[in-house]
């Protein structure tokens, strides 16, 4: 419950404050957001299965973000930033979809 | 979408929130150890999740999701106002090409429109009208004899010691010069214009515009010199009749003759121009 509230508070805060994204962060933020969303959906699924653990959530959240940023950084250094970013987005999107499918099955049985 | 039935981690301490993919054999063992939650179970957990039980971990997780929310909105904002710095080099080059081509097209269009505009504003027509008016004024001035003129033409020197010239002879001479295309004529010190008249004085002397011709006098005409000289040499014409009467006539063609006698135009007392609106 509290993490969900936190998400809402964060969105409202972002809308109200509309923070400036520093330029050094701009290449990494989109992928990092997708990775964090993946962690959040994974956490939602885990909580429905009764295995939610906030320590694991925090670690997976942070590691997802860091790894995503690292991949983008590496891709940019190797000159394949665009392709690598696309690949990461595809993979994370697949995971998000599978997690949502699991959540749907748990809640609706379908 | 990827139907991942893998529901639960095998250990009491779950390894990850998002289930890892494993080999099928391990999956099966996991499935056996921890079956899928039933729907009631899941919903109960959802309701339990709705309850408020703050722990340190929950708060940290909330902090993370809050930062996610902020980042989400910020990124959406950035994308919304995505500027050129978001684009890659090839895209920028393509964009630059597009813009350059467009600018060239627009430049051509601008030039054309400015051309049209100046034409419509009549800068050109104005200039032409001014030029035409200037030329018209010039020809009127020449016709009216208010300006000195020079150009190719002839000079006719008349030595008429006996005073044999008559009104008719002079009039014929002027008419012949006009016939031959003389654009300006001067007889003696008198500029011959449209209103010039030839008369006879009390002592029988020939008057031009009221001025007596005193020998010797010259007749100067501007026009095609050869044609004018030919007109003067017509048998029975001006030169012929004067010579027959005993005067001495010399015709000289010249590349440049000067007519410096001026006619003083007088304000018309009776004639009024018809207003242009009533003109046909």
From TrEMBL, chain A:
Q: Which organism is it from?
A: Serinicoccus chungangensis
Q: Name the source's superkingdom.
A: Bacteria
Q: Which UniProt keywords apply?
A: Cell membrane, Membrane, Transmembrane, Transmembrane helix
The name under which this protein is listed is Small basic protein
Instruction: Fetch the InterPro entries from UniProt.
Output: DUF1290
Location(s), subcellular: Cell membrane
What protein family is recorded?
A: Belongs to the sbp family.
> A Pfam family this protein belongs to?
DUF1290
GO CC terms for this protein? plasma membrane
């Amino acid at each position: 419950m509290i993490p969900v509230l936190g998400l809402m508070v964060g969105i409202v805060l972002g809308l109200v404050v509309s923070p400036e994204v520093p330029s050094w962060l701009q290449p990494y933020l989109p992928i990092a957001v997708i990775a964090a969303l993946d962690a959040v959906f994974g956490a939602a699924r885990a909580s429905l299965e009764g295995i939610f653990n906030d320590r694991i959530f925090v670690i997976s959240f942070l590691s997802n973000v860091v790894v995503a940023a690292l991949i983008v950084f590496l891709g940019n250094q190797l000159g394949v930033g665009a392709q690598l970013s696309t690949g990461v987005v595809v993979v994370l999107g697949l995971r998000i979809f599978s997690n949502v499918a699991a959540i749907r099955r748990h809640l609706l049985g379908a | 979408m990827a139907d991942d039935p893998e529901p639960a981690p095998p250990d009491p301490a779950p390894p990850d929130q998002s289930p890892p993919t494993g080999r099928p054999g391990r999956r099966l063992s996991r499935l056996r150890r921890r079956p899928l939650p039933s729907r009631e179970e899941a919903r109960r957990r959802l309701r339990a999740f709705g309850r408020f039980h703050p722990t340190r971990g929950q708060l940290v997780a909330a902090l993370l999701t809050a930062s996610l929310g902020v980042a989400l909105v910020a990124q959406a904002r950035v994308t919304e106002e995505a500027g050129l710095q978001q684009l890659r080099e090839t895209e920028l080059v393509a964009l630059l090409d597009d813009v350059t081509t467009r600018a060239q097209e627009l430049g051509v269009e601008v030039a054309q429109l400015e051309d049209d505009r100046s034409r419509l504003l009549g800068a050109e027509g104005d200039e032409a009208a001014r030029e035409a008016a200037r030329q018209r004024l010039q020809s009127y001035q020449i016709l009216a004899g208010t300006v000195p003129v020079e150009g190719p033409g002839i000079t006719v020197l008349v030595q008429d010691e006996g005073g044999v010239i008559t009104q008719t002879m002079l009039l014929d001479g002027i008419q012949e010069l006009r016939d031959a295309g003389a654009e300006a004529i001067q007889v003696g010190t008198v500029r011959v214009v449209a209103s010039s008249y030839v008369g006879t004085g009390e002592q029988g002397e020939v008057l031009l515009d009221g001025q007596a011709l005193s020998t010797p006098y010259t007749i100067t005409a501007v026009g095609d010199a050869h044609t004018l000289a030919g007109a003067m040499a017509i048998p029975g014409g001006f030169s012929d009749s004067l010579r027959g009467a005993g005067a001495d006539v010399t015709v000289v063609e010249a590349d440049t003759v000067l007519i410096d006698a001026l006619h003083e135009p007088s304000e018309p007392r009776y004639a009024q121009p018809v207003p242009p609106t009533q003109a046909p």
